[in-house]
Design brief:
Chain lengths: 450, 278, 296
């Protein structure tokens, strides 16, 4: 042990010195630090048989930018989703945040308190037009903008549904039709009943139309919206999800499990990956998500994880004629932390613009991700076999609203309470009315102090 | 011949059966990990798992080892965990010895300070610790990874408890024989405390080897990543790729098993205090 | 003056104690104690990156007024009083059962019970999520033979916490078995021989000789086991995220949520101090109960 110890100390000293020299060499350039969570984007020119790692694209973008700006040194860091929040908290409180960061964690408060740089002065006129309004709105605080939009977020959860046409055909169920695949709730329910069946004859269904998971707040909330419910009143001063519409929506989900038996029991204990898994295994005919989820299936097949490829269509959530189509609106992008040196600020902004320009936003194509730019979405999948699905999806999110209030509401303190309401209803320990009443009461207390 | 003494009683077979059942419940997750790691990737998303792989394969391991960075993560983790374990054992044994066998003003107070400090969860000390490390300029360095782990209170508490069971007369005898304090510690206490040191060594190594959050927070460059951080990254790059994930976890388990067997021989019957005395 | 000289004398006499403690204590102070004290101070502050404001006991008032926090206190106690006796009982039983066997068998079992510790928590949680999975899980598959309808083990407010406790008891205990065996093998054999000569039955030997001599080890296990259970986080985070309906929300899970999801470090630290106080009271009792020195 002793020998090893001495060795270790010597090694430490050498390493510390090396790090010191490395730091000195880099000091002459403008160093930009950039954090991003894992995105497995294949950079242009990458051999398509190779599976990209989360490092490949940030590495490529950084190199490209440094090639165009020889005076800049970009130091990127891929930070895992797990621990991202802890890492940025520690960094902010120690006053050492990165210069540029993916908004995986984003607090409106940061902008309000001047921790972030407003980006308005750096945005070109045509970009204002090109980014979706909802994408720009997400980073809007007191009339200024703080997020460079990049992706349409949440993998399409709460935005659209996935359907497995093979199961529809096998069960003799009519598929919703292009161009938008819009279907009414009655059409959906009729289809769902035919899609659920008992194979082994034990009286319990083995295959279901769809599934719910209490912790999957996006899709569960989408179902409440199908029935015309809204989380907040017009001026966002009160939670009103316990309206008759909301209760009807939750009642439908409970009935879907126990009455119609079109969804498996246990929704109170399941998570989003259970829902995805059931769809992948063909246990459910309907899943959730956008084109990204098709991309996921495609990758799983290529990587040998899913036995065989299957066709997936995208369809909007079903709608009642009186309420119209529903979808969730959200997006993601990059934020710039406060800069003291104006020269460096310009460079960081330039880098952020570079990452979110047309070409680099279009990199999201390799993940079949829909982007925050209209121009990119318009042409990106033209030549793709999934062009129809992408246009169904973009048509669906045209009806989108933010489910959890505008960017001015911080919904996160009540997430757990909303989940608790779904859990209670799915487990039938509370009626849908009770569950949503209790949630609304708690949420109004926490969010609005009443 | 299962037993130490010559009388093999039937009830020992009863307890053997009981132990086997209890142990298998504990081993199932590990077995499942191994089985999934050598299965064809396609089979691994199905539950319940296939308990006996029909077509075992190394493909998951090959893919895991082909991920750039694995070697670097492993070296970092080994370096950090071994250094932490070595220093932790040494300093904890010294402090534990002082608390167990030395009388000095404030010893009780200091000891309870150690105990009390364990009661504040790491979730709230994380940010202050990060700020301390920052003020020393230690982010993204090996000392930044190592220093916070080498003087944990659990080690001191464990060593104090262990050394307090060693007979005090042995120490007194050594002093009378003219041994210095340092010699007494090195020649009498350390050899007698070997089982305790071995247990602490195993615990420390495992704790350090599995540590995820601190290395994630204190390091920035890909070169400084440790294995758990690398594995988490891999898992997020490829969610639901259970085969690969299990191959990675199996790979990560190997050094821990090696350490366990390296240290465990120190706490077998026959080379402990009892034997020395008897 | 004489008092001062007296003190100086005592300090001098204890110099070797300080000498042996110093290396550990120095590092411990900087990297452990300072952050701990810091977080105590944080509980009295509104601590944000843009500035810090002293708010007195306001964070505590906020925490005490939170219905969920009290629920978390009860849940944490439930978990601890469920896990600690069962887990320690299991460890003692198994350590006692393997004790008579020869070394290789002992090693085999110690390794077997220790192995869950080399498997990461993520993987253990994956298999237990499958065991508890409502439609396809092992447990529901087994109870179907008993004619019981399927239960959403982790989705039901009455079963979720017992499910977490059961998992911890089945998976845990490996390190305590290792430690207890090491301590048992360290008990001088002549004590056993003396007891047997006196005609004591094996159970009597265990309770009269083994257990009392294990007291220092037991104290360590009870205290650290209680502290660890009071700070249960990983299993909650991986298995239930505090649900359903907050029935598995523990104090540390709530601290994590408050600090790193809602960025409220003051209230999170205040919760930690309440946890600290609760743990300290329990530890004090445990030290009283098991803390006497062992005499051979």
């Amino acid at each position: 042990m002793k020998g090893k110890f001495r060795h270790g100390v010597a090694l430490l000293a050498v390493l510390a010195m090396m790090l010191g020299f490395a730091g000195m060499a880099a000091a002459e350039k403008i160093t930009i630090t950039w954090w991003i969570n894992p995105w497995r984007i294949a950079p242009p020119g990458m051999d398509s048989s190779q599976a990209p790692t989360a490092e490949d694209w940030p590495e490529w973008v950084s190199q490209e930018f440094m090639r165009l700006n020889p005076d800049v040194e970009v130091v990127y860091e891929v930070v895992t989703n797990a621990g991202y929040s802890e890492k940025i908290s520690a960094a902010i409180l120690a006053r050492r945040p990165p210069d540029l960061m993916k908004d995986l964690v984003y607090r409106r408060e940061w902008a309000e308190r001047g921790l972030l740089e407003p980006i308005d002065d750096y945005i070109d006129p045509e970009d204002w037009e090109d980014w979706y309004d909802y994408a720009l709105a997400k980073g809007q605080v007191n009339g200024k903008h703080y997020i460079f939009p990049w992706n349409n977020s949440s993998n399409g959860m709460g935005c659209a549904m996935l359907i497995n046409p093979a199961i529809f055909e096998a069960r003799g169920v009519k598929l919703p039709e292009l161009p938008t695949r819009a279907w009414t709730f009655d059409e959906f329910l009729e289809a769902a009943k035919q899609l659920s069946y008992d194979e082994d004859g034990d009286g319990i269904n083995d295959y279901y139309a769809l599934s719910f998971a209490a912790s999957d707040l996006l899709n569960c909330t989408a179902w409440l919206h199908v029935f015309g419910a809204r989380m907040f009143n017009e001026d966002e001063t009160e939670v009103i999800i316990n309206s008759p519409e909301g209760v009807a929506g939750l009642q439908f989900m409970v009935d879907a499990i126990y009455e119609y038996q079109i969804a498996p029991k246990g929704a109170e204990g399941m998570g989003i990956y259970d829902v995805i898994g059931l769809f992948h295994q063909g246990r459910t005919a309907i899943g959730y998500g956008g084109p990204y989820e098709i991309g996921r299936i495609d990758r799983y097949v290529r990587e040998g994880q899913l036995e065989k490829a299957f066709d997936v269509h995208i369809a909007p959530f079903p709608h009642f004629p009186e309420y119209g189509p529903v979808a969730h609106h959200t997006s993601g992008g990059f934020i710039v932390f406060r800069q003291s040196d104006p020269v460096k600020r310009d460079k960081v902004m330039e880098f952020a613009k570079f990452i979110t320009n047309f070409e680099n936003t279009a990199s999201l194509k390799t993940l079949l991700y829909v982007t925050a730019r209209k121009s990119v979405n318009a042409v990106l999948y033209e030549d793709s076999p999934f062009a129809d699905e992408v246009s169904v999806y973009t048509a669906a999110i045209d009806h989108g609203v933010p489910f959890f209030g505008s960017e001015e509401i911080d919904f996160s303190p009540v997430n757990a309470h909303l989940q608790a309401a779904f859990e209670a209803a799915f487990a039938r320990t509370k009626t849908p009315q009770q569950a949503l009443d209790d949630f609304a009461k708690e949420a109004n207390r926490i969010l609005f102090g009443k | 011949m299962l037993l130490d003494d010559k009388r093999t009683r039937p009830k020992h077979y009863v307890s053997l059966v009981f132990l086997l059942v209890a142990a298998s419940a504990a081993i199932i997750p590990l077995y499942w990990m191994l089985v999934t790691a050598v299965q064809q990737p396609t089979l691994t998303v199905t539950f319940p798992p296939e308990w006996f792989p029909s077509k075992p394969t190394w493909i998951n391991f090959e893919r895991f080892l082909a991920r750039p960075g694995v070697l670097r993560w492993t070296t970092n983790s080994l370096f950090v965990a071994l250094l932490v374990t070595g220093i932790q054992i040494m300093t904890s044994a010294m402090a534990g010895y002082a608390f167990a066998k030395k009388r000095f003003p404030g010893s009780n107070f200091l000891f309870y300070l150690y105990i009390a400090s364990m009661m504040v969860p790491g979730q709230v000390t994380l940010v202050p610790l990060f700020m301390v490390m920052n003020s020393f300029g230690l982010q993204d360095t090996y000392p930044g990874l190592i220093l916070p782990a080498i003087a944990g209170p659990f080690g001191v508490f464990l060593m104090k408890q262990f050394i307090s069971t060693l007979p005090t007369e042995l120490i007194e005898a050594a002093i009378i024989d003219g041994c210095g304090e340092v010699q007494t510690f090195g020649r009498i206490i350390l050899p007698l405390a070997k089982p305790g040191l071995a247990v602490l060594g195993i615990f420390t190594f495992m704790g350090q080897w599995n540590e995820f959050l601190w290395p994630l927070i204190i390091t920035n460059s890909a070169n400084m990543r440790t294995l758990p951080v690398g594995l988490a990254l891999l898992q997020e790059e490829l969610p639901m790729q259970y085969g690969l994930l299990m191959a990675g976890a199996t790979y990560a388990a190997v050094p821990m098993i090696v350490i366990f067997f390296m240290f465990q021989r120190y706490f077998l019957k026959g080379i402990t205090v009892g034997a020395l005395k008897g | 003056m004489t008092a001062l000289r007296e003190l100086g004398k005592r300090l001098y006499k204890g110099r070797w104690g300080y000498f042996f403690i110093l290396p550990n204590f120095a590092i411990f102070t900087i990297f452990f104690l300072v952050p701990v004290v810091w977080s105590m101070v944080l509980s009295l502050l509104d601590y944000q990156w843009w500035g810090t404001e002293f708010v007195g006991l306001r964070n505590y008032a906020q925490v005490f007024n939170d219905r969920i926090f009290w629920k978390a206190v009860v849940n944490t106690a439930y978990y601890t009083f469920g896990v600690v006796p069962l887990w320690l009982g299991k460890a003692l039983l198994i350590a006692a059962l393997i004790f008579p066997f020869r070394n290789s068998i002992q090693t085999f079992f110690k390794a077997a019970f220790y192995l869950p510790h080399v498997t990461s928590a993520v993987i253990i949680s994956m298999i237990w999520l499958w065991i508890y999975n409502p439609p396809f899980g092992l447990l529901n598959y087994l109870i179907r033979f008993l004619g019981i309808e399927q239960v959403a083990w982790l989705g039901n407010t009455r079963t979720a916490m017992p499910a977490l406790i059961f998992m911890q008891v089945v998976m845990g205990g490996g390190s305590s078995i290792v430690l207890l065996s090491a301590a048992m093998n360290g008990i001088p054999t002549y004590l056993y021989e003396a007891a047997e000569l006196d005609g004591a039955r094996p159970a009597q030997v265990f309770f009269r000789v083994t257990l009392p001599l294990l007291r220092p080890t037991l104290l360590y296990l009870v205290v650290t086991g209680t502290i660890n259970s009071f700070q249960v986080f990983t299993n909650v985070y991986l298995m239930t995220q505090g649900g359903p309906q907050f029935s598995t929300t523990t104090i540390v899970y709530m601290i994590y949520d408050t600090a790193f999801k809602q960025f409220q470090f003051g209230p999170a630290s205040a919760m930690a101090m309440v946890l600290f106080a609760l743990t300290a009271v329990l530890a004090l009792v445990q030290f009283r109960w098991l803390g006497q020195e062992v005499e051979y």
